[in-house]
Automatic annotation (TrEMBL):
Pfam family of the protein (one): DIOX_N
Fe2OG dioxygenase domain boundaries: 199-300
Family as reported in the entry's similarity comment: Belongs to the iron/ascorbate-dependent oxidoreductase family.
Membrane-spanning segments: none
Coiled coil: none
InterPro entries linked to this entry: DIOX_N (IPR026992), IPNS-like_FE2OG_OXY (IPR044861), IPNS-like_sf (IPR027443), Oxoglu/Fe-dep_dioxygenase_dom (IPR005123), Plant_2OG-oxidoreductases (IPR050295)
The name this protein goes by in its record: Fe2OG dioxygenase domain-containing protein
Biological source species: Salix viminalis (Common osier)
Keyword Metal-binding: yes
GO terms assigned for molecular function: L-ascorbic acid binding; metal ion binding; oxidoreductase activity
Top-rank taxon, per record: Eukaryota
Keywords of this entry: Iron, Metal-binding, Oxidoreductase, Vitamin C
Length: 352
């Protein structure tokens, strides 16, 4: 492990310098924390904060808002049960995703594009030439809100793609709005504070083939990163793979039946003035089974002002970030090559 990378990792996550916390790791030049490539020993399932969305929408709302605030601040993620997305729409979405990735390659490659602004694009697995790493995730990423404005750009094969994916996207949108309202309130902001910044959502259908024998040192699902979102809502099938950094350690966030995982993204870190931190996460691959996950990225409109909310700034809590627009952030994200966890540093407020 190169000393520079390890020193940076120590500074960011001190407990990672303790050898007993670092198992089966490698260092990735694009990240600053050593990544774990096989599951951690202890299952963390019992401790994933779980929020009941029916509770959130009922008479004890304030209690659930506190739970959400606590989970965002302490863990950076939580699972949501009773989210109201019908089971059938979830299984249709997962089946459709698998069917798409089982199509012949030439059919899928029609959607390949290197333009980050394209309305739909397929990203394929790749080998990182600087290291002996294969990043195996394939994903189809597309805009989906409102569904009617975008669905004609989506694949017409498999034939049910547009219908099934459209149904899922419309349902997940409702969860998104309810959670964002609760997050706004948990910060002491008006209920629609975040909703007013919103543009839409963008879905990434992620497909992780079962890992194969390879000449390479490491096969990874998706590397350690934060999401450039306000929040991300992740629906996983029943194959484990998601790992997150919590209390400076990697932990597995195994699928919980009928629940989705919500986590904090970079934009929420900025607008909450760092009270809620963007979650570092990754996915490992499973050598026996393919895995599918659906990430719904909730992001602001281009011209939204994303500095810390004014109500959260006072003498004891000076603004950590300056005001910037999502457009500025998005452009710099593609222009400046740095670890995703460092992207927001470019928007720090000037200190006096
Ligand atoms: C993502 C992501 C994790 C997973 O899509 O941004 O981190 O478990 N996915 O698929
Ligand atoms: Ni992610």
């Amino acid at each position: 492990m190169s000393p520079t990378v390890m020193q940076q990792a120590d500074a960011l996550h001190p407990a990672l310098s303790d050898p007993k916390n670092v198992q089966y790791t490698y260092t990735d030049p694009l990240s600053e924390v050593p990544a774990l490539i096989s599951g951690v020993d202890a299952s963390f399932d019992g401790s994933t904060p779980i929020i009941d969305m029916e509770g959130l929408l009922g008479p004890r709302r304030s209690e659930f808002i506190k739970q959400i605030g606590h989970a965002c601040e302490k863990n950076g993620f939580f699972a949501v049960r009773n989210h109201g997305i019908p089971e059938m729409k979830i299984s249709n979405m997962l089946d459709t995703a698998r069917d798409f990735f089982h199509l012949p390659e030439e059919e899928r490659l029609k959607f390949r594009s290197s333009d980050p602004d394209s309305l739909i694009r397929l990203v394929t697995g790749f080998q990182d030439k600087t290291r002996n790493i294969f990043v195996s995730r394939q994903s189809l990423k597309f805009h989906c809100h409102p569904v009617e404005d975008f669905k004609n750009h989506w694949p017409s094969t498999p034939p049910s793609f547009r219908e099934k994916v459209g149904e899922y996207c419309a349902s997940v949108r409702k969860v998104e709005v309810a959670i964002l309202e609760a997050i706004s309130e948990s910060l002491g902001l008006e209920r629609d504070y975040i909703d007013k910044l919103l543009k839409g959502h963008y879905v990434s259908i992620n497909y992780y083939p079962a890992c194969q024998e390879s000449e390479l040192d490491v096969t990874h699902g998706v590397r350690t990163h934060t999401d450039p979102t306000i929040i991300t809502i992740l629906m996983q099938d029943d194959v484990p793979g998601l790992q997150v950094i919590n209390d400076d350690k990697w932990i597995d966030v195994n699928p919980i039946p009928d629940a989705v995982v919500v986590h904090v993204g970079d934009m929420l870190q900025a607008l909450s003035n760092c009270r809620y931190k963007s979650l570092l996460h990754q996915a490992i691959v499973n050598c026996e089974r393919e895995r599918v996950s659906i990430a719904s990225y909730c992001y602001p409109s281009d011209d939204s002002a994303i500095g810390p909310a004014k109500k959260l700034i006072d003498d004891d809590h000076p603004a950590i970030y300056k005001d910037f627009t999502y457009k500025e952030f998005h452009e710099s994200m593609w222009r400046v090559k740095c670890s995703t966890a460092k992207r927001l540093d470019l928007f720090m407020a000037e200190s006096d």
